[in-house]
Amino acid sequence: MENYNEFNVLDKQSKVNPDNLLGLNDISSITRFYPILSYNDTISNEFIGTFQVEPGFFNNNLNFSLDLKFMELYTAIKFDEKNRLLIGKKRLDWGSGLVWNPTLFYTQKDPLRTQNRLEGVYQLNYNHLFEKSDLEFYIFPDSTISKSKIAIKYNMFGNRSNFSSTYIYSGEGHQLGYDISYGGNQFVLYSEGIAKTYSRRFSINPEGLIIDPTSIKKTLNIEVVLGSSINLSERITSYFEYRYSGDNLNRNEIKAFRNYLPNNLILYDPISMGQHSFFGSVNYIGSYGRWSLNSRGFYDPTSHQLILSPLFVYSLNNLQLELSALAFHNSFAIYDLQSTLLISLSF
């Protein structure tokens, strides 16, 4: 169970949100509750069955509205030590990126959260395990056949390195992806990327008109993430991540976006709208690992957007507190300052 609170200072001079066009509140509060029921049983000497359901209850504490969403709902059968079949709604753990995961095609985690409870995706998954690798086949059904997807994923596991490759096909087009990581004694290096023949991102022409991605001729779009973590000492770890996204806005499109605000809010991304994005942080862990202090920063060189976001985390048994703030330095900002308090309780 968690309680998420925001205390915001709106930018009254914002070109993105003039006169609070979006109707945002200075204060918001949401309570989320995730009960999990899991059942395992040995059907026979060879078959092991698993059932798990995780409903999510979301309560807007200011408006007292309650929503229900199933985060996970699946059953799995393990035929033997090498073969498994899963049917239902389950999270995908694709990608090693800390902030950005291009291979995770169906949704993206919140880069400002230390804990992300992503909603699962409906799937039929068959997994075959080899000695140091495995092969997975997926079917992701959707409302129409053209929106449905099929995928193949191959994973290799080494002593210090891991590698995976993916292929996805749907009515949108084709997508090839890779994910590789290597861990040394004091560091981890990783890279993740995709090449796809389609785009879901809206763009803008020099006259400020929004261009729907479905109306654009299919071309090859590349997205790549490079990252590392380095243990500077027993208590200090640094993180760095760079992303290139070919179908994000280029420099001319950023200028058009700026000139025709706020009519093009569909393009707005508070972290990075440009083709190049940087993330860096230094994390200090306190005594007994009960608290940590993290200095995070995001920079978009295309739009010159800079975000500084300190984070304090305190953990005690089943309780965790996260206190963070976001300071924006860019004319695209909606807020002068954002601050959040997250209270998590597991039992």
Description:
The protein is an all-beta fold and 347 residues long. It has one helix at 251-259; strands at residues 2-10, 27-33, 37-42, 48-60, 65-78, 83-90, 121-129, 133-140, 149-157, 161-170, 173-183, 187-196, 203-204, 210-211, 221-231, 236-245, 276-285, 291-300, 305-316, 319-329, 335-345. It is built from one helix and 21 strands. A hairpin with a 5-residue loop joins strand 3 and strand 4. The longest helix has 9 residues, at 251-259. The termini are close together. The model has no long low-confidence stretch (mean pLDDT 92).
Shape: globular
* Helix and strand run: EEEEEEEEEEEEEEEEHEEEEE
- The proportion of residues forming helix, as a percent range, comes to under 10%
* Biggest beta sheet summary: 18 strands, antiparallel, barrel
Quickly give the structural class: mainly beta
In total, the number of strands is 21
Gyration radius, in Å? 22 Å
How many helices in DSSP terms?
1
Distance between the termini: 9 Å
Query: Hey, roughly how much beta strand do the residues contain?
Result: over 45%
- The residue-averaged pLDDT reads 92
Low-confidence stretches: none
